[in-house]
What does this fold into?
Amino acid sequence: MLTPMGKGMTLKEEALWLVEATRYLEEAQGVGEETTALAAARKAEISIEGKIARRAEYLPSASQLLVERRALMRVFKLSIAFALVLFLVLGAFAAGAAFVVKDGHFVNIYWLLSSLLGIHILSLIIWLGGLAFGSGGLLGHLVSDISFSIARRVNSNSIRLAAVRAMMKRYVRGKGGLWLSSALSHGLWGAYLFGAMVAIFALLATQRYVFIWETTILSSQSYEALTHILSALPAQLGILVPGADIVRASEWPLNGDVSPGAHLLWSNFLFAVLLLYGLVPRILLCALSVFLARRYRRRSELDLSRPLYARLVPLLHPVVSKTDIVDEDDEGRVTENVTAQDPDIPVLEAEKTALLGWEIDKPEHGWPPSSFKGLDLGIFDERAQLADKLSQAQSRERLVVVLSATLSPDRGVGAVLSQCIQAMDRNRVFVWMVGAHQVKQKYGDAFMEARLGDWLSTAYQAGVSERHFLVAEWGDRAAQKILGDGQ
It folds into this structure.
């Protein structure tokens, strides 16, 4: 069984993938039987994202999707392994082709280095350019696209298609996909350079070569300076490299005074340059890309503004619970009523709370409630006044927007809540629904819950946190906490 998440935790990778795959499947086929799944999700004491993941886990399609995921992961890993071996072999062949021998056993050291490191440097420049445009590693994208495309064609059905689309979203698209493709690209080029180094080692271990350099238009001082620059880091690590005298003596045609040990120093120089300026940077960049890919995947969240998820919010979230309050018509008699769905409503000092009523009737006991000592923004129904009210509310720690459950939510209310979120921020805006008790008395429990579900869906799509959607009547104990009075 999957472990979607607990309070304050993020969804596990497999759970996130399953939710996305389920969404793609339901968008293609429509929503099927979900009664059992919804019941299981409602019981879980977890966030709304976790409830959506729990629902996906209990759907009949979950087992098939997870089987497809394991199959796709095998295809993906095999594709990566095949690509790594291919680039290892390509690197070895490239080294052999670049190992141009002159007059039997003379090898141009700088032609060899430029042949092997030139494509490496060019690919790094292309990768950096890709980052600027958000495309990541081209080779990594190519491997991912080919592997998932093959997997989709091998067993083409709705389950496989949904699984592939979810895999592409999780591993290829977005920030996580950008860095995963970068990691794959760096890994492949690292394999290429490693294969080249292995091939060069095999050649040097079985045959004797003399390294030279030659030029038509450049001076010997240019090669001396270049060798000195490239040798700086290897020399700092204690690697013996050719000095200026050996560089001058190695110019073709040889003048006969080359040191007998020059071939070993040039060999050290060759391997050090390939290792320190080629293979090591690729390994480090690959490790960094893997770290960033995992980080962005861990931080990724469900886009709950999508219609399918927005439909689930009121179905999964317990917007109604019961508590003991004093009935307005009979002071001393305890009754059941609709109240806040979250027993852990945060209590702030009253003077740090701003209260705003939108399209509600003035309470019988007056506005604002007698217990409220914070900033009263009044009751209004004209959006032209909203900007001024919100500028006043910004001086307070939270804004409580009072709405009436006796009305149906519309786009205008959603726009008002969105404007409140933009002016304050998501963590400072609360929605307080009043009038649910009247709806219950007039139409019954089922209608009331459906109405509150509509309001919750509207508030959530506007950006209000589900934990900031509060339902309580005037005079309710929970209302005292909403008004900033925890006594």
